[in-house]
Each structure stands twice: as structure tokens, then as C-alpha cells.
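=== RUN LOG ===
request id: a7f3
mode: sequence -> structure
chains: 1
length: 166
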Amino acid sequence: QKPVLLLEKPKHIVFQDEAASSGSFPAEVTKTIHFSEAGSAGGVVSQAAPRGHVPEPHVLPDYVVKYPEISCPAERERYKAVFNDQYSEYQELYAEVRTALQKFRELDAMMDKLPRQRDSAKENARINKVILEFERRKNDPAFLEKRHRCEYLKSKLSHLMGQIGR
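=== RESULT ===
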């Protein structure tokens, strides 16, 4: 399952400097923050985002919407059932992913010990073939999907535990 992106209508925000230049609002400061440290003069903190900054959308995982705060005992039991059902899937995936990552670490360590200059072109070609196969397996879509699903389940189960424990 993929995280759900909540889309909202964009809001029109008018900043103070835009309002002052357009003349649509009086140019007055509504909130000024003064600060000072020992030995320094006071000043004003600017809370504006830098020009050209494009904020990234906040993606809310689907389980946050689907499993809000528990409001009754029946809902707590339903959350527990979902947790127990998906925990076994998580354990299996975690074992597979952990084993694969351990093998990748071991192979990485072995490959680091290989000499950079090989004696023959044949040996060089053979080692390059092994390196390419290793990279292909590390980036295998099936493995990456399992890893992503494992991370998703870990987050979802943590969320459920937080809701159940409240």
C-alpha cells in the first residue's frame, strides 16, 4: 500500500511586503519579535521563506488516516487484530531483508579487499561481471519492494501500538 497524499485547495496568502506595494492593505507590522543577547543590540527576526523556496508536499501515510485515536473498546480490539495479522508478515519480511542486507555487507567487505589492478584481462572481466551481478541484485525491484514493504509495516505497526497503548 502506498502513502496517501492529501490534496487541499491552495490558499491565497498575501505577505506584508506584497500588501504594502499593492496598496490593498495598510502597511503595518502586526507581529515583531525582538531579541537580544548579552552584549548585542536588539533586532527583528525575519520569518519569511527564502525566495525560490518550494516546500515539499507532506505525504500522510494511509494508516494514519485509517487508524485514528481509539474511541471505544471494540476499536481497540480491531486494531489489535490488524496488528497481530500484519506482525507475522513483518517478521517474515524482516528476516528475508535482514539476511539479504547481511549478505550484501559481507560481499561489499570482500569486494573492498580485491586488488584494484588485476593480473590478466580475463580475471578483470570475471571480477567486473561479478560486480555487475552484485549491483543488479542490490537494485533488484523485487528486493527493493520487499524492503519498502518491511519499512512501511514497521511504521504502521508502530503507529498501531501507539494507538493501542493510549
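=== NOTES ===
The beta strands are 34-35, 43-44.
The radius of gyration is 27 Å.
=== END ===
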